[in-house]
Amino acid sequence: MIHKSTFSLVKKYMKLITIESKTLILIGPVDLPINVDGQTYPFKWYTWLTAGDNLKEGSSLEDVYTMLEGAPLAHKQLSSVLVYGDFENQDEAYVRLHSICHTGDVFGSELCDCGEQFKAARRLIVQEGCGAIFYLADQEGRGIGLYQKAMAYLLQKQGLDTVEANRALGFEDDLRSYNEAISVLKALREHPINLITNNSNKIEQLRKGEVQINKRVPVWCEMTTYNSKYIQTKIERSGHIKEY
User: Fold this and answer.
1) Most CB contacts within 10 A, which of 86, 153, 240, 242?
2) Which sequence spans correspond to the domains of the chain?
3) Cα separation of 148 and 171, whole Å?
4) What does the pLDDT read at residue 164?
């Protein structure tokens, strides 16, 4: 159980964000030293919780205390934001919206380029001096989830590409939505961003969400015997921009 005295110490780091009929509870920043290419850099970490029906319009942080009281959240997948530099005010800020990839980011799998893109984005942001990486936890397998992704991998082993495998499981090619990330991005920064992506659909969704994009920064990684079909499918069937 969270004691009220404890909650009072952390609630000043909380912010409520209204998105459509939902309320997001953003918490941070938390100082987080991050290793990038062998050197440590001072990032700031945020995460957010989607309240759902637990908070109504007009709710306050005191209502958050009631919602969180005695409620462990380990079973929920929560997204994060890693921020570097003066993200709110600096003219140039580089942003990557990165979908969670258990196999690539955590295990280091070479079947995809996700892990390498995650490292490349951190490296670029540090080099440029300002930016943010949104680590989106509900987007495994382009939104189908980890278990279904395992089935998709088994179908790919039998000759299907990523698009065909997802469709064979009854899903569209890409189920991801960036609405929550867009709302958090706007809460952290009002100025235009430099978007780190190859994905034309992601660009379109952010523009529909009225995010001002100053320029796109490509983030292609080395093509290998393991990931070449995956990358070619992105380009030929999923609208990824072939520009290195």
Assistant:
1) 240
2) 29-46+75-139+176-237
3) 10
4) 94
Are 160 and 173 in contact, with CB atoms under 8 Å apart? no
Protein fold of 29-46+75-139+176-237 = Rossmann fold (3.40.50)
Whole-angstrom Cα distance, residue 187 to residue 27?
12
Q: How many CA atoms lie within 13 A of 5 on its CB side?
A: 0
Give φ, ψ of 17 to 5 degrees.
-125, 125
Q: List active site positions.
A: 174, 176
The residues of the chain scoring below 70 in pLDDT are 1-3, 52-59, 65, 69-75, 243-244
Predicted pLDDT at 47: 96
Strand ranges (E), the chain? 14-19, 22-36, 39-50, 80-84, 94-99, 131-136, 193-196, 213-217
